Amino acid sequence: MNPLIRALIIFLLSISALRAQSDNFVFSPINVLQGLSDNQIRYILQLPDGRMVFKTSGNINIYDGVHFKYIHQTLPNLYPLNGYDGFYRIYQGKDSLLWIKDTHKLMCVDLRTEKYLSGLDSYFKKKGFKKGIDDLFMDSGQHLWFLYSGKLYKENSSTIIDLSANKNRLQDLMSRNNNLYLFYDNGEVICYDLKTKRKLYTIAAYPSEQRAFFKNTSLAVKGNNGFYQLRNGNKGGFFFFDTQKRIWKKILETNYTLNTLVVNSNDTAYISCTNGIWIINCRNGEKRYMPTLKKVDGSILNTEISTLFYDKQGGLWLGTLNQGLLYYHPSRYKFKYIGRSYFQKNASNDIIVQSFAQDQKGNVYIKSQSDIYQYHSSSKMDKVLTVVSLSLVPKEILEKLNQNNQTVSITDIRGWKWTGTQDGLKVFDPKKQKERFFYTKDGLSNNFIHALLEDHSNNIWVTTSYGITKLQIDPISNQIHFTNFYSDSGTLEGEYSDGAAFEAKDGTLYFGGINGFNILNKSGINSKKIPFSPLFTNLFLRGERVESGKLYDSHVIMNKTAPYTKEIKLSHNQNFLTFEYSALNYQNPSQTYYRYELEGVDNTWRETSIGGQNENPDSDGILKTSYTNLSPGKYKFKVMASNNNLQWNGLVSELNITINAPWWKTPIAYILFTSLFIAIIISGLYGYIYNTRKKMERNHREDILLVRIRNLIEQCDFLQSEKETYLIEKNENTIGSANKINENNADNEFLARALEQVEKNLEVSDYSVEQLSRDLCMDRTGLYRKLIALLDKSPSLFIRSIRLQRAAVLILEGKLNIAEITEKVGFSSSSYFSKCFQEMYGCRPSEYAEKTGNST
After folding, report:
1. How far apart (Å, rounded) are the C-alpha atoms in residues 28 and 326?
2. Which of 400, 563, 663, 815 would bridge 357 by S-S if both were Cys, CB 3.0 to 4.6 A apart?
3. So which residues are the signal peptide here (predicted)?
4. Domain boundaries, the chain
């Protein structure tokens, strides 16, 4: 074969292989639209607690998977660092400080307060550096090293290494096994013994004639058997230094700058550069260059990747020069998204995918409102979709495409009839003659149903106006489990089409919608275990977010930011709390499930998915739960998180809460009250005895005859007072009756309005005393006094009594089960409902109908 033709074939094969590999990477953008401060990313770091740190040109962004917190920079926070000429570098020490290096300047952020430290000059002077340090480094053990007047000083240590004899510029350092490795601008690494402070050896990465190629910047990263290093100058170079063999290896050389390097535990290196990224398997030498990146909608992104990071969950973060962040995880996009860019370029209107069909050979056809396409799953094809002329479409395929079911109704293998409506999903069981409706509060991704499909595993798939829901029915208990998939799983961001759901012969699922369709390979729905450790991100007091160091009712609640807070102490009236936690599930935030418990209030764990907390599901992966009117005492709030596998074997995050009693309920106050009460009793007894003795003495001196006269006078007075009392009471009864009628009318009207408001909000589980008082245009104290005076019941007991009375009626009707009645009358859990019901009626809800002589 001609050598030129052979070279051309090899080139084309390499291009095809590169395209196939590149197709595996689908990135989702995160930019200012999601809350990023600005789109110019300079550096990425992950904190030990799992949060991500993004340094942009504007400021520092701390990301918990949903929310961004900004740490703003001011000029007084800058410290001159004349010895550093490189790019952005961020070091995190063991003391929660972030050290930020940029060309000739240094900054420091305290994560416990989320503020820049001012007065770094004083900080370094206290450490003995009067003239100012030249450079700052951090070794592999997170120990800071300061370069000062030709010497290296280890923080909080007596270790000092004299470098004055070396005239080259120190660019990086790393540590390993009590050895310190110094990387210089001439390409040399010098190893020192940290115990003896002696130099062990010096080895150069390249010959002296190549120093100009790589002398400008250096970035060293620890690997399994040594250190990886990026170097830049006239060229870019990627090197590896084997600390055991003491040899350098050049892995990659480019004619352009290599920006940032990360290496995962499998020795796979990711390198950002001017255009795209390099992915290099350092064990077998396989290299992959991706000059362009694909977003989830199929569009191509061609921009400079300024930095990158590989997180603890196996996700790859890319920071761009001016387009924000890009995130990729191998299991993030379970659904393949064939978007508008794959269809005809001249399509100006919306592309509505209406139906699917498959021929005997396995070819899949897609019908839109204007064209019929054939889908090519093979990566060898240049086009994923090709337009097929009507004359070339097989007749049986054309019939299937035109027979698309628009009724959104199916009957499953159990005989259940499922019907999708514009407001919920209806299912009818003909055996039990029972009908149920499901809404977002029950687990649906959205209430507007577009298509239904039963797959070969007898799962029900539901496409909606916002995401896809999978329903798994337990074959024994018939219990239904909901799993929702949103855009972070690759689903369409717009609506799906009516009836456009299809399962191919190999089990692949297709879902059509506006401007695209989804493909799901059934092997892609398995959820992998992620080591979740929920993080305390925010505390809200009476709806107001609590800030660290700020006074609330004259005292500070949190001295540190929420992630560093393990205990909070509150006064007796600071008992309306909302806790916010993040599982930091960057991979699939909408597939986050939580269980939580407030010891002292909850009798057991409460479980919830982020899409099941309210009528309008929020797929951001954040847990936000409230507790109101907490009594003084000690509590412990515990949180766990899981993904779709619902395996609660991860870490438990705990927050200790103390609500102090008011001063009049403290032990000292009780002692004082008791002492005062005893003193009053003693004083009263003494006074009583004294007065009684005096009275007995006076009575003794009276003549016995006066007793008879006094008795006679008292008898006359008694008869006269009886007469007067009779006349007064007669008049008062006449007047009092009229007043009492007026008072009774006003009281009855008030109670009727209160009853109306409670019954109107009967299904609202968090309908509180505060809301009732607002609805009645009263303050909370006035409402309390009014109900105590009329009913001898507090407002909370008033609300609960109405709920329980309504529950008793529903039980006697026998149309709903206990769980449904619990939800109907606004109780958050069946166990709590049963407890309250038994307190009021003296029996469990399940026994009530039988006890009252009725049957369900």
Report:
1. 5
2. 400
3. 1-22
4. 338-525, 535-665, 744-851
- Please give the Cα distance from 17 to 89 (Å, whole number): 35
List all residues 6 or more positions away from 118 whose beta carbon is below 8 Å from its beta carbon: 76, 77
C-alpha to C-alpha distance for 619 and 757, rounded to whole angstroms: 32
| Statement: 535-665 belongs to CATH 3.40.190.10 | no
Tokens of 500: 């456009």
- Complete DSSP assignment for 432-500: TTEEEEE-GGGT-S-S-EEEEEE-TT--EEEEESS-EEEEEE-TTT--EEEEEE-GGGT--SSPEEEEE
Please name the amino acid found at residue 580: E
CATH topology (fold) of 744-851: Arc Repressor Mutant, subunit A (1.10.10)
CB 383 within 8 A of CB 373: no
Measured CA to CA, the distance from residue 627 to residue 578 in angstroms comes to 6
Is residue 284 within 8 A of residue 17, CB to CB? The reply is no
CA 611 to chain centre: 12
pTM of the predicted structure, to 2 decimals: 0.70
Kindly report, residue by residue over 346-385, the tens digit of the pLDDT: 556 788 999 999 998 889 999 998 889 999 876 555 578 8
Q: Which token pair is 653? A: 């995050």
Q: Round to whole Å and give the CA distance between 568 and 557.
A: 6
Cβ-contact 757, 787 below 8 angstroms: no
Task: Using DSSP, state whether 116 is helix, strand or coil.
Answer: strand
Measured over the CA atoms of residue 774, residue 778, residue 784 and residue 786, the dihedral's sign is: negative
Asked whether the domain spanning 744-851 has the same topology as the one spanning 535-665, the reply is no
Q: In the prediction, which pLDDT does 698 show?
A: 63
Q: Cβ(824)–Cβ(833) under 8 Å?
A: no
- Taking a C-beta distance cutoff of 8 angstroms, is the pair 47, 71 a contact? no
CB 337 within 8 Å of CB 331: no
Residues in the chain: 856
